[in-house]
Amino acid sequence: MSKKIGSWFLITGLLFFSGCATGRNYQTDIDALNSRVSSLQGELSQKDQEIARLQGQMSQQEAALAQADAEKRMLNDKLDATMAQMQAEKARQAKQAATESDLK
Length: 104
Known about the structure:
92% of the residues lie in helices and 0% in strands. By secondary structure, it is mainly α. The longest helix is centred in the middle third of the chain and has 77 residues, at 27-103. It is rod-shaped. The model has no long low-confidence stretch (mean pLDDT 87).
């Protein structure tokens, strides 16, 4: 049993040291990935600013549209009132003309 445990430790040790013996330097890969992450964070920040700017423009346009709608309603009400006055004046003139023709 101790022979099995000893051989297991030997195999484990060999695998461990052979994995560490590659000697590959990952620092350049890490630096490249960190640089890419920083670049993407910068792009994300720019996109967030662009979104905020576009939302501001949209809010301004919505406010302008609401104001234009209010002005349209006001002008429509004025037009309706003017049309009603014109119809009332026409009716009054027609009534007056009918009264004058009856008198003649």
